[in-house]
Specification:
- By secondary structure, this protein is mainly α.
- The chain folds into two domains: 38 residues; 57 residues, High potential iron-sulphur protein (High-Potential Iron-Sulfur Protein, Chain A, Irregular).
- Helices cover 38% and strands 4% of the residues.
- It has a two-stranded antiparallel ribbon with strand order 1-2.
- The radius of gyration is 23 Å and the shape is rod-shaped.
- The N and C termini lie far apart (69 Å).
- The relative contact order is 0.16.
- The protein binds iron/sulfur cluster (SF4).
- The site of iron/sulfur cluster has 14 residues, from loops.
């Protein structure tokens, strides 16, 4: 077999291996993001739709605001729609 053909064959194998590795890495990232997006259940962190002890979701570092100050948003840790006036046991003060 001519040397050029061997080189092309090796290059094709390496390209295929690189493609497979990239696909596996991408699938892993998608799975991790899906798990993060899902979050833990409200019940598991004792979520409630009202403040507790002067703390509420709008003052939590994990809160992702909705379209307005009064609209429900989401949470980086808890699944589902989250009231800015809610609270759960994961409450963490926003950085000053
Ligand atoms: S972690 Fe709890 S308190 Fe903080 S935003 Fe999410 S649901 Fe609200």
């Amino acid at each position: 077999m001519p040397e050029d053909r061997k080189f092309d064959g090796r290059r094709a194998v390496l390209k295929k291996a690189a493609g497979i590795s990239a696909a596996i890495a991408a699938a892993g990232m998608i799975a991790i993001r899906a798990a993060e997006a899902a979050g833990v259940s409200k019940a598991s962190v004792h979520y409630q739709d009202k403040p507790k002890g002067g703390h509420q979701c709008s003052g939590c570092a994990l809160f992702v605001p909705g379209s307005s100050a009064t609209a429900n948003g989401t949470c980086k840790a808890v699944a589902g729609s989250i009231s800015p006036h809610g609270w759960c046991m994961l409450w963490t003060a926003k950085a000053a």
